Amino acid sequence: MDFETICKERYSTRDFSDKKADEKAVRRVLETVRLAPTALNRQPYKIFIVDSEEGIERLEKSKAVLYHAKTVLIISSDRANAWANRYSGETDVLIDIGIVVATALYAAKECGLESCCVCNFDPERLKKEFELPENLTPDALIALGYKSDDDKPSERHFMRRRVEEFAERK
C-alpha cells in the first residue's frame, strides 16, 4: 500500500475488537517509529507498551479513553533532552512527539493494525499509575488493534479543506 492510500484509508478507530494487536506488527510499528525525524536527532521520547489487563486497567484509572483497545502505546517526552530554538528558547519537543505519533499511526495502518491517537487522559495520574521517571511527560496514547464490525469513521473524517484554503505562495 502506498503512502497516499494509507493516508486516505486510515481513520481513528473508536471501537476496537477484543483481539490484542499482533506482537510482530507492534514491533514493526516501533521499528518504523525509531526512524522518525526529530530535531537534531535527539529522539527525546520513550514509548511504553501496555497490553496486559492490569496495564489497561491502570490506563483507565488515568481517565484514558481507549475505545476497548487491548494494546496501547504511551508516548512520553523527555523535555530536558529536546532541542531548543536559540532565538525563542522554546523546545521543539511537541513537534518531535507529533512526528513520532504520526509515524506510528501511519505505520500501524501499513502493518495491518488500526489506531487512534488519544490525548484525553490525566497525565499526572498516568505518570503515578505507571511510576514513570520524573524526566518523562506522558503526551499521547496510541490505541492499537483491529476495528470491531461496528466501527466506522467519524463524519468529521471526510471533512477536508482544499489545498487552496490552507496553502499560499509568498
Structure write-up:
With 170 residues, the protein is α+β, with helices and mostly antiparallel strands. It has a single domain (3-166), classed as 3-Layer(aba) Sandwich (NADH Oxidase). Helix content is 33%, strand content 17%. It has helices at 3-9, 23-33, 53-61, 93-110, 123-129, 163-166; strands at residues 45-50, 71-78, 114-118, 136-145. Strands 1-2-4-3 form a 4-stranded antiparallel sheet, sandwiched between helices.
SS-derived structural category: alpha+beta
| Largest beta sheet: strand ordering | 1-2-4-3
The global form is globular
Name of the top-level CATH class: Alpha Beta
Beta-sheet strand percentage?
Answer: 15-25%
CATH superfamily assignment?
NADH Oxidase
Element-by-element helix/strand order: HHEHEHEHEH
Number of helix segments?
6
Largest sheet: 4 strands, antiparallel
E-strand count:
4
Radius of gyration: 17 Å
How many separate domains make up the residues? Answer: 1
- Which stretches are poorly predicted, pLDDT < 50 over at least 5 residues? none
CATH topology: NADH Oxidase
Question: Kindly state the mean pLDDT as a whole number?
Answer: 96
Distance between the termini: 34 Å
CATH architecture verdict: 3-Layer(aba) Sandwich
Give the helices and strands, then pairings:
Layout: H1 3-9, H2 23-33, E1 45-50, H3 53-61, E2 71-78, H4 93-110, E3 114-118, H5 123-129, E4 136-145, H6 163-166
Antiparallel strand pairs: 1-2, 2-4, 3-4
Helix pairs in contact: 2-4
Descriptive terms for the model:
6 helices, 33% helix, single chain, alpha+beta, four-stranded antiparallel sheet, 170 residues, NADH Oxidase
